[in-house]
């Protein structure tokens, strides 16, 4: 049985007419055409489908649109400001934090929520914030580097672990 | 190849597709939507081994919203398999199912829910057969034969090779060790589940978009399986959300989607659930190994005899190659004058094993590097020094006819020893902390294609036109490793332009020359060399045209910063777009091919085709661990990895591959296992199949060593698989250093460590590992002359080189 | 994709409305708060309610209040993140803060509730599987089948209590407030559970957990340790909650509660009893750990082997008590 719901996604109010048992993940991808949100398991076991609800990372595979009404939903498509990428997106691209890119949307949003709440996280705090996002490609190292770099750029001062701007074109640690 | 100054090569640039990925713009296969698209689901067997007596699909067909239902009877009755020697699969099983998860029917419907409900209405009558869930069971029950073909009942393949006099080698050794090891099976677990969209269009031609690492092999096999000319089929690899070898076979879901599209006249999308991905598998073979090695008192190896038993699962997949791989690369790291290898792959009623990152070489590498440590202890040698002193020589052949070109392993060992503080820490860490080292090697592209042919392994077309645009067309598939970007960097370097000026068009069998696929770490080297060749041909034509315009000899021209100019008089030159206009005016349409096929250096013996490669990468890894002596939990606290990559075309990308490989190796040694109970996969979920989170992954210190190999594009060798291998034995060796117990199997779980520690306290053997080996008679070995020590050419001859 | 089966979703705005809706719809209806336990289970067809009564819209259910006399009342609808971060919980009821913060992942804790974790479904690796998987093994006693696959001769289900907060709350002496058709009642949390993998809660299906009430802390020290393979995602394979009330150097009261060793949280009564009136020494701790270890009988239906999990009872109880005593973890096995 379908029902008419109003969702606020990336700052825009959208109406959908969907069966109530379709999860937010499914509605975003299949009814709103926002395929940036990915799925890895649909059971809450991998973090890939993470979106923000009122600024909090939540699993869209376990959220129902009917339960999200009145909440501001943010997907990866809503991170950029017009054509200006979010500093996290910029840092991820520059530092090679996205390899296959499939876990990237979920991680970007989780990191965005972290930096709003904690603008100068330690590397360990970043690890803990991202402990619910699996990645099989990167080994997480460059993801942590990119979050630290983004924090540095967004909030000006060095993070508590002393992240620094990488040199513009430095080859790293070569023989 | 001399070290030159590069403009693009060697820079840590973002990937060309990084922006789309961080913006969520990249369209993976499940993101594709076509008008009127139907959704498909497969019905899979609940039995590990059974005859299919009857399938009745009428209940499914009558469900509203169902467009078509097919069984194996609706497909040409032709078996397929990625390897020509093991064509044993059907997309939809007709007579027999050989594992839980074997597909028997497929439904296309208006939406996925309807398709799923329809599959539940298909009635299948099975006659269960005896399930064979282990090598022992399979060998003990030849009457319950899984396949009719093979080297014996339930023996898929048994091989036996000997190079040189191994017995004499043992006789002259100061120490001979025999050890047994077991490496548990595990799976790729890519974040993206397999997905495909098939469209059999109104013109009778088929297009398949698929999350695949090998559009070419899929293309070839679809033609055979669907009985359609390959020229009427187009396969496009969608961006792949993680492959690691799990997306290298043609799959039932792809084939079913194609057939359903043909029947319904609609595009058909099919996406696997995570559980189905565990059934598709094609992952790391569980391998039981026996290794006997002779050592001199200086730690040099006099000879080695290696035996492996592979638990292959229900189908062949790449398994014959995997079998040979378990015996091929032992010889390329340290000098091994005489070598004997026996391997057997056994069929069992489990998801088939195939290629996973490292493909058959991590298991023997684990065995070898742990045994070397045991020997080092007996001989009173430092494990790093023992390895360092006995490395294989560059440009020399191995006993089994592999050609080692550059080998930067010595420098790798030196660098990790220094960076980790090995000398100070070894033997001096507090109780419960340990440090371990291991080395390894991996091929940079398989020297032989999956099907024998004399054609290029990789092809590139570089075209330019009067707009100044450069397009690079190549069948290579970017699975996240950055192969699209590498093509752009190489062509940009050759033409003196920026990567952003280049458009890379990959992995489309209609548009792009054949590239065999993303496996065996072949793409950077093979597609890269082809791209350089194509770009150089274009540049030659451009130089000729600009030379004529500027009235200088073409040899005096150079490219750089988007110009073509005279280096001694840089003002004399034209912009790149102007140069292309000149060239297009002189030559007409500018489109140049580049082709690469590896040197044909395979040893002339059966099986000699597995192992050869244009060149090998090398890695040395030191791991520090903390072992909780009460719980047995092993925490790797730091990893140092030095990797000889030949040349780091983009250090950022290379580091990413190294770090990712270490991560995956740590998962395999500490927690990943593809295990079964009562005939079913015990843990087919991302919760229960354990893969490391941020909290289990330590800081990884990557050191890149550049040995500048003549075979590689600007000297590059591979980085995507090699670094996975050494971390696994390094952890095992570190655990021994920490708490004095030997876990001769993977994963090294807390239970095993506590059990071994208990035994140690009780004065029993502090080693946990295989106690028994299968009772099995290998065939008589093929005696092949050992090629150990034969010199190899500095630059190999290869087809299509000029 | 794994998808939910169809259902009707009702969103009452008061507890009374929710109780009435549950009563009206009977066994067809289930309560859902955060959904993080129920929705995955529904996708695997472990539950197939046709009506869901959502509790999210009931504002009264979330929030922490101080009802007086030093007690702390946490609304059942309070998210696990909020519980883990709450200053009063962190300072006075450390075991609960740790337990709530140890559940799964940050995302899930933002959605999951304390009440949900207290009532979380028991688990077993023969049961927490897809419909097709369970069909391949002919189902099990807990859903759609007849026998317990982990203990085939057994007349009862052995699914494992998998809550992190329940043992912590039990050791802290918490009570649970329930609202049902018959009205409201408050029971000690220990009375909420019973020893059966299927009927693991004593409350009626239509009764709603509204609040968890913690008694005054009175200087008690508490700790929660969780055994699992990874630092996130994983359910407890063993949970140890311990709360000590001291009088100077002497133990006045000790409550040690084990999670994930049985179908309900298991209080190690003997271990607690032998500590009372004693000084908190390493020897006492070892004796208590031993007493907790002996009766523990985990079965082979979770991650990590059951002999190992049993063995770890002693290690983790000792470790928990040593933490409370301010002693370092023991070195040798």
Task: Describe what you observe in this structure.
The complex is a heterotrimer of chains A (175), B (802) and C (333). By secondary structure, chain A is α+β, with helices and mostly antiparallel strands. Chain A has helices at 24-31, 65-68, 87-94, 104-117, 123-129, 141-155; strands at residues 2-9, 12-19, 50-53, 56-59, 72-74. In chain A, strands 2-1-5-3-4 form a five-stranded mixed beta sheet, sandwiched between helices. In chain A, a hairpin with a 2-residue loop joins strand 1 and strand 2. In chain A, helix 3 (87-94) crosses helix 6. Chain A starts with a strand and ends in a 20-residue tail after the last helix. Mean pLDDT of chain A is 92; it is low at 168-175. Chain B is α+β, with helices and mostly antiparallel strands and 802 residues long. In chain B, a hairpin with a 5-residue loop joins strand 19 and strand 20. Helix content of chain C is 30%, strand content 21%. With 333 residues, chain C is of the alpha+beta class. Chains A and B meet through helix 3, helix 4, helix 5 and helix 6 of A and helix 1, helix 17 and strand 30 of B.
Outline:
Helix content of chain A is 32%, strand content 15%.
Topology:
The complex is a heterotrimer of chains A (175), B (802) and C (333).
Chain A: E1 2-9, E2 12-19, H1 24-31, E3 50-53, E4 56-59, H2 65-68, E5 72-74, H3 87-94, H4 104-117, H5 123-129, H6 141-155
Chain B: H1 18-23, E1 38-44, E2 50-56, H2 58-61, E3 66-71, E4 96-97, E5 103-109, H3 112-120, E6 123-128, H4 135-140, E7 155-163, H5 166-171, E8 175-183, E9 195-200, E10 206-210, H6 215-226, E11 233-237, H7 252-264, E12 268-271, H8 274-280, E13 287-295, E14 301-313, H9 319-325, E15 338-347, H10 362-379, H11 383-388, E16 396-397, E17 403-404, H12 409-420, H13 422-425, E18 433-443, E19 458-464, E20 470-474, H14 483-495, E21 502-506, H15 523-550, E22 558-560, E23 563-566, E24 569-575, H16 576-587, E25 590-596, E26 616-627, E27 634-644, H17 651-670, E28 676-677, E29 680-681, E30 699-705, H18 724-739, E31 742-743, E32 745-746, H19 750-761, E33 767-768, E34 782-784
Parallel strand pairs in B: 1-12, 7-34, 8-32, 10-11, 14-15, 20-21, 27-30, 31-33
Antiparallel strand pairs in B: 1-5, 2-4, 2-6, 3-5, 7-15, 8-13, 9-10, 9-12, 13-14, 16-17, 18-26, 19-20, 19-25, 22-23, 23-24, 26-27, 28-29
Helix pairs in contact in B: 10-18, 14-15, 15-16, 17-18
Chain C: E1 8-10, H1 15-25, E2 29-32, H2 38-43, E3 51-54, E4 64-68, E5 71-75, H3 80-85, H4 87-92, H5 94-102, H6 106-111, H7 114-118, H8 131-136, H9 165-171, E6 175-180, E7 183-188, E8 208-214, E9 221-227, E10 238-247, E11 250-259, E12 266-267, H10 269-275, H11 282-293, H12 306-324
Parallel strand pairs in C: 1-3, 2-3
Antiparallel strand pairs in C: 4-5, 5-8, 6-7, 6-8, 9-10, 10-11, 11-12
Helix pairs in contact in C: 10-11, 11-12
């Amino acid at each position: 049985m379908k029902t008419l719901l109003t969702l606020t996604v990336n700052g825009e109010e959208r109406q959908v007419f969907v069966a109530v048992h379709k999860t937010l993940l499914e509605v975003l991808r299949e009814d709103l055409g926002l395929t940036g949100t990915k799925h890895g398991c649909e059971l809450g076991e991998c973090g890939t489908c993470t979106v923000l609800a009122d600024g909090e990372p939540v699993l869209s595979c376990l959220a129902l649109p009917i339960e999200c009404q009145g909440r501001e939903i943010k997907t990866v498509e809503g991170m950029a400001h017009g054509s200006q990428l979010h500093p996290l997106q910029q840092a991820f691209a520059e530092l090679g934090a996205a390899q296959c890119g499939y876990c990237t949307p979920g991680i970007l949003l989780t990191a965005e929520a972290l930096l709003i709440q904690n603008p100068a996280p330690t590397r360990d705090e970043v690890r803990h914030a991202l402990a619910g996002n699996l990645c099989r490609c990167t080994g997480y190292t460059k993801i942590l580097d990119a979050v630290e770099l983004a924090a540095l750029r967004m909030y000006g001062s060095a993070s508590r672990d002393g992240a620094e701007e990488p040199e513009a074109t430095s080859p790293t640690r070569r023989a | 190849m001399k070290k030159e100054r590069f403009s693009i090569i060697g820079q840590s640039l973002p990937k060309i597709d990084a922006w789309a990925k961080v913006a969520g713009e990249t369209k993976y296969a499940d993101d594709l939507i076509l008008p009127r698209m139907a959704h498909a689901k497969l019905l899979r067997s609940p039995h590990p081994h059974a005859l299919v007596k009857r399938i009745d699909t009428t209940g499914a067909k009558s469900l509203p919203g169902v467009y078509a239902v097919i069984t194996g009877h609706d497909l040409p009755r032709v078996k397929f398999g990625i390897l020509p020697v093991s064509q044993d699969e059907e997309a939809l099983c007709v007579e027999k199912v050989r594992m839980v998860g074997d597909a028997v029917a497929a439904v296309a419907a208006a939406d996925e829910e309807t398709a799923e409900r329809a599959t539940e209405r298909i009635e299948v009558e099975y006659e269960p057969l005896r399930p064979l869930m282990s090598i022992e069971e399979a060998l003990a029950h030849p009457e319950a034969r899984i396949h009719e073909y093979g080297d014996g009942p339930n023996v898929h393949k048994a091989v036996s090779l000997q190079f040189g006099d191994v017995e004499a080698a043992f006789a002259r050794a100061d120490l001979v060790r025999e050890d047994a090891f077991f490496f548990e099976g595990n799976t790729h677990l890519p974040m993206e589940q397999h997905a495909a969209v098939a469209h059999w269009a109104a013109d009778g031609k088929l297009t398949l978009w698929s999350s695949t690492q090998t559009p070419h092999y899929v293309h070839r096999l679809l033609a055979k399986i669907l009985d359609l000319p390959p020229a009427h089929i187009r396969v496009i690899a969608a961006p792949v959300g993680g492959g690691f070898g799990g997306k290298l076979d043609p799959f039932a879901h792809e084939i079913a989607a194609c057939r359903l599209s043909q029947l319904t006249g609609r595009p058909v999308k099919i996406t696997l659930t995570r559980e189905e991905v565990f059934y598709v598998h094609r992952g790391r073979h569980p391998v039981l190994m026996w290794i006997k090695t002779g050592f001199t008192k200086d730690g040099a190896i006099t000879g080695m005899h290696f035996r492996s038993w592979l638990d292959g699962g229900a189908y062949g997949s790449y398994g014959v190659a995997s079998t040979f791989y378990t015996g091929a690369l032992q010889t390329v790291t340290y000098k091994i004058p005489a070598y004997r290898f026996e391997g057997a792959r056994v069929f069992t009623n489990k998801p088939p094993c195939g290629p996973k990152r490292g493909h058959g070489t991590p298991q023997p590498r684990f065995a070898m590097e742990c045994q070397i440590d045991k020997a080092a202890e007996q001989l009173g040698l430092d494990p790093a020094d023992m390895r360092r002193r006995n490395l294989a020589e560059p440009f020399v052949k191995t006993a089994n006819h592999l050609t080692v070109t550059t080998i930067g392993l010595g420098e790798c060992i030196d660098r990790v020893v220094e960076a980790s503080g090995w000398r100070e820490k070894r033997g001096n860490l507090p109780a419960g902390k340990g440090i371990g080292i291991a080395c390894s090697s991996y091929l940079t592209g398989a020297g032989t294609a999956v099907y024998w042919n004399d054609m290029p392994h990789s092809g590139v077309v570089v075209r330019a036109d009067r707009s100044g645009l450069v397009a690079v067309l190549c069948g290579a598939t970017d699975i996240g490793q950055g192969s699209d970007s590498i093509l752009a960097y190489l062509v940009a370097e050759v033409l003196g332009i920026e990567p952003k000026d280049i458009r890379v068009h990959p992995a489309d069998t209609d548009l792009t020359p054949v590239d065999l696929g993303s496996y065996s770490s072949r793409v950077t080297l093979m597609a890269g060399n082809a791209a350089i060749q194509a770009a150089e041909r274009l540049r030659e034509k451009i130089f000729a045209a600009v030379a004529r315009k500027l009235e200088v000899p073409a040899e005096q021209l150079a490219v750089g910063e988007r110009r073509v100019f005279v280096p001694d008089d840089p003002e004399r030159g034209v912009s790149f777009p102007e140069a292309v206009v000149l060239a297009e005016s002189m030559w007409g349409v500018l489109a140049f091919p580049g082709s690469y096929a590896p040197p044909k250096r395979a040893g002339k013996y059966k099986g000699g085709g597995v192992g050869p490669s244009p060149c090998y990468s090398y890695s040395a890894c030191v791991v520090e661990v903390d072992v909780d002596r009460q719980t047995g939990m092993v925490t790797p606290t730091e990893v140092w990895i030095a990797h000889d990559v030949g040349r780091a075309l983009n250090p950022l990308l290379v580091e990413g591959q190294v770090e990712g490989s270490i991560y995956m190796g740590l998962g395999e040694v500490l927690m990943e296992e593809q295990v079964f109970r009562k005939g079913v996969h015990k843990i087919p979920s991302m919760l229960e199949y354990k893969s490391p989170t941020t909290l289990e992954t330590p800081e990884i210190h990557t050191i890149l060593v550049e040995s500048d190999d003549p075979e590689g594009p600007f000297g590059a060798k591979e980085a995507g698989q090699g670094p996975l291998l050494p971390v696994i034995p390094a952890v095992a060796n570190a655990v021994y250093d920490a708490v004095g117990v030997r876990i001769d199997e993977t994963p090294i779980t807390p239970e095993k460590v506590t059990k071994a520690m208990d035994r140690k306290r009780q004065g029993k053997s502090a080693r946990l590992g295989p106690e028994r080996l299968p009772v099995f008679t290998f065939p008589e070995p093929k005696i092949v002359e050992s090629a150990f020590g034969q010199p190899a050419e500095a630059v190999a001859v290869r087809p299509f080189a000029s | 994709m794994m998808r939910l089966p169809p259902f009707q979703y009702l969103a009452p705005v008061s507890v009374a409305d929710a109780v009435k809706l549950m009563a009206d719809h009977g066994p067809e209806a289930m309560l859902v708060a955060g959904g993080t336990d129920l929705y995955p289970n529904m996708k695997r067809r472990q539950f197939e309610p046709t009506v869901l009564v959502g509790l999210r819209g009931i504002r009264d259910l979330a929030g922490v209040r101080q009802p007086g006399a030093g007690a702390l009342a946490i609304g059942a609808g309070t998210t696990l993140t909020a519980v883990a971060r709450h200053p009063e919980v962190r300072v006075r009821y450390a075991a609960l803060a740790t337990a709530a913060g140890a559940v799964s992942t940050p995302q899930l804790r933002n959605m999951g509730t304390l009440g949900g974790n207290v009532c979380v479904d028991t688990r077993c690796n023969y049961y927490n599987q897809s419909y097709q998987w369970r069909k391949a093994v002919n189902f099990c006693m807990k859903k759609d089948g007849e026998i317990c696959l982990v203990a085939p001769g057994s007349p009862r289900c052995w699914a494992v209590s998998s809550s992190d907060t329940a043992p912590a709350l039990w050791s802290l002496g918490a009570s649970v407030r329930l609202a049902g058709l018959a009205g409201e009642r408050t029971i000690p949390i220990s009375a909420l559970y019973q020893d059966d993998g299927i009927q693991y809660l004593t409350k009626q299906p239509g009764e709603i957990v509204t609040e968890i009430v913690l008694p005054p802390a009175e200087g008690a020290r508490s700790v929660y340790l969780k055994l699992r393979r990874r630092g996130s995602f994983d359910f407890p394979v063993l949970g140890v909650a311990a709360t000590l009330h001291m009088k100077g150097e002497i133990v006045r009261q000790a409550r040690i509660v084990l999670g994930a060793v049985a179908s309900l949280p298991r209080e190690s009564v003997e271990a607690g009893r032998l500590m009372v009136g004693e000084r908190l020494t390493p020897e006492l701790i070892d004796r208590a750990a031993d007493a907790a270890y002996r009766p523990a009988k985990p079965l082979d239906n979770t991650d990590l082997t059951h002999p190992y999990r049993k063995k770890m009872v002693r290690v983790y109880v000792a470790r928990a008590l040593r933490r409370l005593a301010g002693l370092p973890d023991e070195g040798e096995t």
